[in-house]
Write a structure and sequence with these properties.
The structure holds three protein chains of three kinds.
Chain A (H helix, E strand, L loop, with lengths): L1 H12 L13 H14 L1 H5 L12 E3 L3 E4 L16 H10 L14 H4 L4 H13 L12 E2 L8 H9 L13 H11 L5 H4 L22 E3 L2 E3 L10 H10 L11 H7 L6 H13 L14 H11 L5 H9 L1 H4 L17 H4 L4 H9 L1 E2 L11 E2 L8 H13 L10 H8 L1
Antiparallel strand pairs in A: 1-2, 2-3, 4-5, 6-7
Helix pairs in contact in A: 2-6, 4-6, 8-12, 10-12, 14-18, 17-19, 18-19
Chain B lengths: L2 E3 L3 E6 L3 H12 L4 E4 L18 H6 L7 H4 L2 E3 L7 E2 L33 H8 L18 H15 L7 E2 L2 E2 L23 H12 L5 E2 L9 E2 L5 E2 L21 H9 L5 E4 L3 E7 L6 E7 L5 E11 L3 H11 L23 E7 L15 E4 L9 H5 L5 E6 L18 H11 L3 E8 L8 E9 L5 E6 L4 H20 L4 E5 L44 E2 L15 H19 L10
Parallel strand pairs in B: 1-14, 2-3, 2-14, 3-11, 4-20, 14-22
Antiparallel strand pairs in B: 4-5, 6-7, 8-16, 9-10, 12-13, 13-14, 15-18, 15-21, 16-17, 17-18, 19-20
Chain C lengths: L37 H14 L14 H10 L28 H20 L8 H12 L15 H17 L11 H6 L32
Classes of the chains: A mainly alpha, B alpha/beta, C mainly alpha.
Chain lengths: ~425, ~600, ~220
């Protein structure tokens, strides 16, 4: 269970005694490194369930074979205990191991290229002296030909990797600059939130490029654009990153783990910087849905009266209204808003269908410990019913998006 | 089956219901190593995700989240000359089990006693002529003042997101609330739940007749709420599956919604479920405990060493555990020596059901605490009791705690089966409302708990024996209240009324559900001569044992007990943190 | 004839609702009892048919598969939460609750056997062969404990206890969620106007004295 994993990992990471391999480690530096590792969410890939923290072994399906994350504990044989700081920096920022082999860009070195020398130093101190060494031998990656030829990564890097260090744009405030540094670099938000090209490369690597963080798709899920975040205030962005929930939204899918393991551990001022930065980015040109100004009232009225209902309305009353209410507004920080929701209005309905079938749960975080569970309705609703209900959601209140077909639901249910 | 010894902890908590959860979080946040042992299973919220709890048969008929009589029965007799018989099926009361205890599925009425209620003995001595009340009455004052306890009521109100209308804010009476309530330091955290049709009819009429109705104070919250621990509650949607059901909407304040997600994050907190504590183990001098022994799910006997022991299982389970462990002396009603088991009390209820063939009450659209009540008939608020020779009072209310159809009330004369019954259901489901009473219950010399000599539980330990019956005091009170209720009922002009009140010759009928507000047995007081615990719920006899629960009440008031249990537990937790840890020993000197 | 039943929703294409699986979709004449023997089953069908008959407003017990519910409950451990240890004194005060020595399963087996014995003795027929009025009379006699099971050889069971168990289980089966095998297609809920497991009435709590228009939904999501 997520809670136990977090607890376990936290305890493991705090095991400082006996883990020091270098003389006189500076506690403050190690703690800074620990914090930066949270920002970089190293734990998400470099820890596998049931294995020691940072000992690797997580299987990542790349679409071209399985990549296994490596052991980055200070074990000298199986981990990175023998790495110098320069070797560590090259692995993190250039994707090159100490023995010269290339890492696959599942390791987001294209983002980490922006990490400063000072932060590399702190991260190095943490991974050498703040993490318990583990002799776990992470399995070798199994990529299909020709992707198993690692030297090919050299060519890929030449064309697609931007190795330039972080550069602030003119006119940015210190706050926005700090936010940009975190987002472009350790945050590696771009890995999911920037659209990718034919070679699986991110189409943009820094804030100057209009495709940066402009949204895309991940495992068929629509990933929203982060540029400008027109629907949320800075405080609402901070709330979401801190707790996985805010006035109108709750986290679902891959982002749940990101909140749980990474962003909920960041300091308030860093999160405010991230929020300020995202708001400062010029928004991506988005399809403006035809807003139905009377739509919200009309739907609420029809659902309240509960007569002459369409099947979609009836399904809503039988399954959803308990939490999301007749006005589709839910309740702040507990039940997400459906009226106007990005995930409901997205062209690609996969995320919506997925949540309807499988449910979602908020992570337990320091600032919001409550685990709030939305049940899945896979057993309760047929594909046709999910399609009808999803269509109702996408066209009810002020929402405006295309209908969902039974076939689309069946595809997600598999 | 082997003997195991766990690692030592600072605090072991026996029973992870409301009292146990409050102790767990307060003491864990103070940095102590805390372990909770719970006899029943874990009850994570996803087990109760919508719409699973919307199932009357499982939860309200088969008592899915309750303890079973097979595991937790007691024996009952009316007086000391009889042989007690087991509660083979639950009837008048039904205790909970599992993480959350009854806090998982309670109705959610969160109401304080009055300032008179907590000093009832003082009131009685002052208001009643000597000898005018039952000579066996053994009522006592609670050993704290209103000013001392109020901040803890306030804290628990906020932990639960109490929803209602403030009646008395710092001494100033506020419109819409209970004018008889003791002064509050803060207003209610959230607005009142909405009234159902029955409550609004009742309130309107009661007001016209000169009473002071107000919405039932509710721990089913009216709006999204974040409590002082950072836990979140969601707005109640009046789903109709509340009393006896786990909440499907995060709306009912429970250990799960209000506390457990927070305390489970703390590395110094741990818990074991399916762990039945059979004994508190004392040191040889019997002045302190060294830990507790439990049977785990693999039938191992496990010793849990601890520096402090909190007994926070249900009221009578706490008392039984003290008896089985030799903490204090078991009460003897003839000699009135011993303190463990004395001052057991319960409560009585009654109602009139009003049938209206043309009204739609929609009983399924309701929260647990939905309803309106008045406290005009409460000790200190009315004089008739003094004239008529009884002490006590009752909440008089019209509530609609649940609306599911099994057990629907039908008008007098409706056949119990056949075409008449079936058509009765079609004609009368949703066509009735109740006006009910929930009374005080005094404590008496002869009403007590001890260990049964004949019957045992599945772990081979004697069942708790309960000696209790109605006394004339409570029965006279019932007849008095009946007149008031029928008066209001008639004003409403129903097509028919059926009634259910005790008579002056009624014995306690344990086959009909009353309430699980059993109190007393290990009461708090000023003196070890006649109480088991001091004002901090600390055992007079074994100073590192604290016993929070309804067991601490010296008699029962008409207010539901949970608010007071929350307050006295918070009060005790403060004392442990601020006084006991620095200087372990008896906290009250006599 | 106007009842409290909800207005049927004509616009919903019923083809969209998948046929209920398991117990919820069972048809009575295809059901194979797992607890009751074939003769016992005949008694149960006939008794339920009189306890909640077809005639009159509202569905009967057979139309709603009440016997399926009872059979399933007995098969699945009904009564295993009861404290059964002795001693069992004679003549316990009724207000001190159930003090019997038989489990529900034992009560049904014995009760059906003895009821049939009585029917044979008095009418020369088994219960299910009696005319409706005679069935009703016999059920009433059981209810009032006018038939002595002790005289028929079973002192541990009172006829009124057996009747009470059977009637209680029948009513539970009639009104419970259909996942337990009774209340087929939620017909009992439709007849009385109970919305089932919808469990969401935020706006309805304020609609005082307004008839609720929507039919029920079951825990499994089936609509009526």
């Amino acid at each position: 269970m997520m809670n136990k994993l977090t607890q376990f990992l936290t305890t493991a990471m705090l095991a400082l005694a006996g883990a020091a391999v270098h003389a006189a480690p500076d506690q403050a530096l190690i703690q800074r490194g620990e914090y930066l590792a949270r920002a970089g969410d190293c734990i998400a890939c470099h820890s596998a369930p049931g294995k020691p923290a940072f000992a690797g072994g997580l299987a990542i399906d790349s679409g071209h074979g399985i990549i296994y994350s490596t052991n980055i504990t200070p074990d000298k044989q199986h981990g990175i205990g023998a790495y110098t700081e320069k070797q560590f920096a090259d692995a993190v920022r250039k994707g090159v191991k100490a023995d010269g082999t290339h890492l696959y860009p599942a390791m987001p070195y294209t983002s980490y290229a922006k990490v400063s020398d000072a932060d590399i130093k702190a991260l190095y101190a943490f991974f050498q002296s703040g993490v318990k060494a583990s002799a776990f031998d992470a399995p070798a990656s199994k990529m299909r030909f020709p992707f198993n030829l690692r030297f090919g990564m050299g060519f890929w890097n030449y064309f697609f990797a931007d190795a330039k260090p972080f550069a602030a744009q003119a006119g940015w405030s210190d706050k926005v600059k700090q936010g940009a540094y975190l987002v472009e670099g350790l945050g590696h938000c771009s890995s999911c939130h920037t659209p990718r090209g034919f070679a699986m490369n991110e189409k943009a690597s820094n804030s100057g490029q209009p495709a940066f963080l402009a949204g895309g798709e991940l495992n068929d899920w629509p990933v929203p654009s982060l540029r400008g975040m027109p629907r949320w205030s800075e405080a609402q962005i901070v709330d979401y990153l801190q707790t996985g929930r805010n006035h109108g939204s709750a986290v679902a899918g891959e982002m749940t783990a990101v909140v749980e393991h990474s962003t909920s551990h960041l300091r308030e001022d860093d999160l405010q910087s991230i929020a300020a930065y995202l708001k400062a980015l010029p928004p991506a040109p988005a399809r403006s849905p035809a807003v139905k100004p009377q739509g919200s009232q009309e739907t609420a009225r029809k659902l309240t009266a509960a007569v002459n209902l369409t099947l979609g309305e009836r399904l809503y009353l039988d399954n959803c209204v308990a939490c999301h209410f007749v006005n589709g507004k839910g309740a702040s920080r507990v039940f997400p808003e459906l009226d106007g929701a990005t995930v409901i209005n997205a062209d690609n309905p996969t995320a919506l269908i997925s949540v309807m079938l499988h449910g979602a749960r908020t992570p337990s975080t320091d600032k919001a410990p409550s685990i709030l569970v939305m049940p899945g309705f896979a057993r309760r609703l047929s594909d046709a019913e999910v399609a009808t209900l999803a269509t109702f959601l996408r066209q009810g209140w002020s929402n405006s998006a295309a209908s969902v077909s039974e076939r689309e639901v069946a595809k997600v249910r598999k | 089956m082997s003997n195991i010894t766990n690692d030592e902890v600072d605090v072991v908590i026996v029973g992870l219901g409301w009292a146990g959860s409050i102790m767990a979080i307060e003491l864990a946040q103070a940095g102590l190593k805390v372990r909770a042992l719970e006899r029943g299973p874990d009850r994570p919220p996803e087990d109760f995700a919508y719409p699973k709890p919307a199932d009357q048969y499982a939860y309200a008929i088969k008592n899915k989240v309750f303890a079973t009589p097979r595991d937790a029965a007691l024996t009952v007799r009316y007086n000391d000359s009889e042989t007690a018989l087991p509660t083979r099926k639950w009837g008048a009361f039904a205790p909970g089990t599992g993480v959350g205890g009854s806090g998982l599925h309670w109705t959610g009425v969160l109401i304080r006693p009055t300032t008179t209620d907590i000093k009832l003995k003082t009131y009685a001595d002052h208001a009643y002529k000597r000898g005018s009340l039952d000579p066996d009455l053994r009522i006592k004052d609670f050993p704290f003042t209103w000013d001392e306890i109020e901040p803890f009521f306030d804290k628990f109100d906020k932990i639960c997101g109490l929803s209602g209308n403030t009646g008395n804010l710092k001494g100033i009476i506020q419109p819409g609330g209970d004018p008889f309530e003791g002064p509050r330091s803060s207003p209610y955290p959230l607005p009142a739940l909405h009234d159902t049709y029955n409550s609004s009819l009742f309130a309107e009429t009661a007001k016209k007749m000169g009473y002071h109705p107000f919405p039932n104070p509710s721990a089913n919250v009216s709006q999204a709420w974040t409590n002082p621990y950072g836990a979140q509650l969601a707005p109640c949607n009046y789903c109709g599956y509340c009393s006896k059901y786990p909440c499907l909407n995060y709306s009912k304040a429970s250990p799960q919604t209000a506390i457990l997600d927070v305390v489970k994050r703390m590395p110094n907190f741990s818990m074991r479920v399916n762990a039945n504590v059979i004994r508190v183990d004392l040191h040889a001098d019997k002045k302190t405990a060294r830990g507790v022994t439990y049977i785990d799910e693999n039938k191992n006997e496990v010793f849990q060493p601890a520096k402090i022991v909190i007994l926070s299982s249900f009221q009578f389970a706490n008392v039984r555990l003290m008896m089985l462990s030799g903490i204090g002396q078991i009460y003897n009603p003839l000699t009135e020596t011993g303190t463990i088991g004395r001052n057991y009390a319960f409560l009585s209820n009654g109602d009139a059901t009003l049938f209206f063939k043309d009204k739609h009450f929609n009983p399924f659209a309701t929260a647990g605490a939905t309803g309106e009540m008045f406290n005009d008939i409460s000790p200190g608020n009315f004089e008739d009791g003094i004239k008529l020779g009884f002490i006590g009072g009752a909440k008089i209310h019209s509530s609609q705690a649940t609306g599911a159809p099994i057990g629907t009330a039908l008008p007098k004369g409706t056949p119990g089966w056949g075409k008449g019954w079936k058509e009765g259901m079609v004609d009368w489901y949703g066509r009735s409302m109740k006006i009910g009473i929930t009374t005080t219950c005094m404590s008496y010399r002869g009403h007590h708990l001890d260990l049964d000599p004949n019957y045992k539980d599945p772990w081979g330990q004697p069942l708790l024996r309960m000696t209790f019956d109605w006394r004339q005091n409570e029965l006279k009170l019932q007849r008095y209240l009946r007149d008031i209720v029928l008066g209001i009922a008639k004003e409403l002009g129903p097509d028919s009324i059926s009634e259910n009140f005790l008579s002056l010759d009624s014995h306690w009928d344990i086959t009909k559900y009353v309430s699980t507000h059993n109190v007393g047995g290990a009461i708090m007081g000023d003196s070890p001569r006649d109480s088991a615990l001091n004002r901090y719920l600390q055992s007079w006899d074994v100073h590192n044992v604290f016993v929070p629960g309804g067991n601490a009440f010296p008699q029962n008031f008409q207010a539901n007990p949970t608010a007071t249990i929350g307050a006295i537990t918070l009060f005790a937790a403060e004392a442990i943190k601020n006084q006991y840890l620095k200087n372990p020993g008896p906290l009250v000197q006599v | 004839m106007a009842t409290a039943a909800a207005v049927p929703i004509a616009s919903i294409p019923l083809v969209r609702q998948a046929h209920a699986d398991g117990l919820e979709g069972m048809s009575l004449n295809q059901y194979q009892p797992v607890f009751f023997s074939a003769p016992e089953w005949q008694f149960i069908l006939a008794a339920c048919d009189r306890l909640i008959p077809a005639e009159g407003r509202g569905p009967g017990a057979l139309e709603t598969n009440v016997p399926v519910f009872i059979d399933q409950q007995l098969h699945n451990g009904l009564g295993d939460d009861v404290y059964m240890d002795g001693p069992h004194p004679e003549n316990p005060a009724p207000t001190l609750g159930f003090q019997g020595t038989l489990t529900p399963q034992q009560s049904y087996r014995a009760g059906i056997k003895l009821a049939q014995q009585h029917a044979q003795k008095k009418f020369g027929k088994s219960f299910e062969q009696l005319a409706a009025a005679d069935k009703d009379a016999m059920l009433t006699a059981l209810q009032k404990n006018e038939i002595s099971f002790a005289e028929l050889g079973e002192p541990a069971l009172k006829a009124s206890s057996f009747f009470g168990q059977l009637l209680g289980d029948a009513k539970n089966g009639y009104l419970a969620d259909p996942m337990y095998g009774g209340n087929k297609d939620m017909k009992a809920w439709v007849a009385i106007g109970f919305p089932g497991a919808r469990a969401a009435f935020t706006e309805w709590v304020d609609m005082h004295n307004v008839k609720y228009p929507l039919g029920p939904v079951s825990v499994s999501g089936k609509r009526a």
